[in-house]
Design goal:
Layout lengths: L4 E4 L2 E2 L12 E5 L2 E6 L1 H5 L7 E4 L4 E4 L1 E6 L1 H7 L3 E2 L6 H14 L6 E6 L23 E5 L4 E4 L1 H7 L12 E4 L5 E6 H9 L7 H17 L2 E6 L6 H10 L6 E4 L9 H10 L7 E3 L2 E4 L28 H13 L4 E5 L2 H16 L8 E4 L5 H10 L2 E4 L1 H7 L7 H6 L1 H4 L5 H6 L4 E3 L10 H10 L19 H7 L2 H6 L17 E4 L16 E6 L2 E5 L4
Parallel strand pairs: 1-5, 2-6, 7-14, 8-9, 9-10, 14-15, 15-16, 17-18, 18-19, 19-20, 20-21
Antiparallel strand pairs: 1-3, 3-4, 6-22, 10-11, 11-13, 12-13, 22-23, 23-24
Helix pairs in contact: 2-6, 9-10, 10-11, 12-16, 16-17
């Protein structure tokens, strides 16, 4: 087999030891690393058809993998007005007013990234944005993507004029008179109004997805664990893959919602393994709760508003049954569990499933925003992956606990925020991700956040829980070695070794010695997926 790619004059960084390999070059054939050696040895493997790249001392790591992201829904959600930089209501109103002026008559306004902290002590409702949205159909996605604000005109067009009942923990929030306030909690409620808005065409969705994925590749990502298969997701991945335009290796977990019966479970089990050259369906995503900011998490004690008291599944025992059925079928699961009660129940469900019959199934819990001491060791004991998003802590909470998330929880529980260090030290396999579009996807920013735990927009602010920071090496491992382990790919991914996948990220300098606050700006010079460049800096 001919050598397709040769990288010379490289510093090859071992993510296990944190040291550079003695080799300075590598060769790639058939999407795999086929040789490591010095420049002379590896150059000799090239022929006239081989792409030879002189890295001039740049640092090569195994390809960086985002452990939790939503490519298709993110590409659609982030197409509208970005409100994530707004820090108070005046800034939100100004941004909305500017967007309204650019709208055609009757057109819908779509916004995203709205932080509930901008409302201060006011209720999160569209009345706070009046009169900017008067007569304008608008949907404003809150930053957590579990809730949105719908303008009065949008509610009118959707025929939503009062409370609704759902099969999951969703809500059309209403005032004392039964009138909707505009706040919609969780997907089932949001979909009531989303259905009334014009939808993008298939071609538009594909183009937006392709653009987002190219941006991810340029940021150094070679893979991602996609935590949904909603809508046209699988068809879009298949189309891009068949056209040679899929720049990330994707592991896709479709959702299992409350009310799923035996037929639905069989369908989910039957989907496993389906995919193409660079994507596959593997695992099932479930929700045990919502979010703390919305009051829809599942906590062992209510928050300061008396909220976050129930599971997303009306009958948590039904969730436990589903975990057992999927475990018996050998299907790994990923459970969204933010609150302490949700995390505990998810761990209990895995323990019960394993007791019924040991199988080598790697289950995961996603987010794990606040947990007590007695749950930490159970992750390692049960082999449950801890999938964490440290930039959520950095950008949506504050060290002084004056933010909405912390105020809802109170000092005791807010002090247990995103316990990456404690979980790591307890023996858990910690995987890092962005949860894009909730937080930005550049992996160097995610790794930096795990190290400094400061607001990315104001690094002069004090860190939130600095004792929970990971080291530079641990942060790299969490997006390489550990990500491969979580996907069951540790024998072919996550390391620079002969026979392993040629998924590579090339950086201008060593990410382990670059200061955490400077790491997001470290240039990504080359990204290689399956032996082909998906991003190449002009300097190479």
């Amino acid at each position: 087999m001919r050598t397709r790619l040769v990288l010379l004059s490289a510093r090859l960084l071992d993510p296990v030891t944190g040291r550079f390999l003695p080799d300075t070059a590598l060769a790639v054939s058939g999407g795999r690393i086929t040789a490591l050696g010095d420049d002379r040895q590896i150059r000799a493997l090239a022929d006239a058809s081989t792409e030879v790249v002189d890295l001039k001392g740049a640092v090569v790591t195994p390809g960086l993998v985002d452990g939790h992201l939503h490519p298709v829904s993110g590409a659609e959600l982030t197409h509208g007005l970005d409100l994530s930089a707004c820090t108070d209501l005046d800034e939100v109103r100004a941004a909305l007013a500017g967007e309204v002026r650019s709208l055609a008559p009757g057109a819908w306004l779509h916004g995203w990234g709205l932080d509930p902290n901008v409302f201060g002590d006011r209720p999160v409702e569209t009345a706070a944005l009046s009169p900017v949205l008067d007569g304008v159909p608008a949907l404003l996605q809150m930053f957590d993507a579990h809730s949105m604000l719908a303008s009065p005109r949008a509610l009118e067009l959707a025929g939503v004029d009062g409370p609704r009942t759902f099969a999951q923990a969703a809500e059309v929030v209403c005032d004392d008179a039964g009138r909707p306030t505009g706040l919609l909690l969780e997907d089932a409620a949001c979909e009531l109004v989303e259905r009334a808005a014009p939808r993008p065409t298939h071609a538009e969705r594909r183009a937006r997805l392709a653009t987002a994925l190219r941006g991810m590749a340029a940021a150094g990502l070679t893979g991602g664990h996609a935590m949904d298969a909603n809508g046209e997701s699988l068809a879009l991945y298949a189309e891009l893959d068949a056209a040679g335009e899929l720049p990330l290796r994707l592991r896709v977990a479709p959702w299992c919602q409350p009310g799923a019966d035996a037929e639905a479970l069989c369908a989910l089990i039957g989907q496993q393994g389906a995919g193409g050259a660079l994507w596959r369906t593997e695992g099932v995503k479930l929700f045990m709760d919502g979010t703390i900011d919305n009051g829809t998490a599942w906590l062992e004690r209510p928050d300061c508003h008396g909220e976050s008291t129930h599971a997303f599944w009306p009958d948590p025992a039904a969730y436990t049954h589903v975990i057992g059925e999927l475990h018996r079928a050998g299907v790994p699961t990923a459970t969204h569990a933010i609150g302490d009660a949700a995390v505990r129940h998810a761990l209990d469900a895995v323990e019960k499933a394993r007791a019924a019959g040991e199988r080598p199934v790697r289950h995961r819990i996603e987010h794990i925003e606040t947990v007590p001491d007695d749950t930490l060791a159970r992750f390692a004991e049960l082999g449950v992956i801890a999938s964490m998003q440290p930039t959520h802590c950095c950008d949506f909470t504050r060290a002084d606990h004056t933010d909405n998330w912390s105020r809802r929880l109170g000092e005791e529980r807010a002090s247990r925020a995103w316990r990456c260090r404690d979980l790591w030290d307890s023996g858990a396999t910690v995987v890092l991700g962005s949860d894009w579009p909730i937080a930005p996807y550049p992996p160097l920013g995610v790794m930096a956040g795990a190290r400094h735990r400061r607001p990315s927009h104001d690094l002069g602010q004090p860190p939130h829980g600095p004792e929970q920071a990971l080291s530079a090496l641990e942060s790299l491992q969490a997006m390489t070695v550990n990500a491969a382990h979580a996907a069951g790919d540790e024998h072919e991914a996550g390391q620079l070794a002969v026979g392993f996948r040629a998924d590579l990220t090339v950086l201008a300098d060593n990410p382990l010695t670059t200061d955490a606050t400077d790491l997001p700006d470290l240039p990504v010079l080359l990204t290689v997926l399956d032996g082909r460049a998906t991003h190449r800096d002009a300097s190479l």
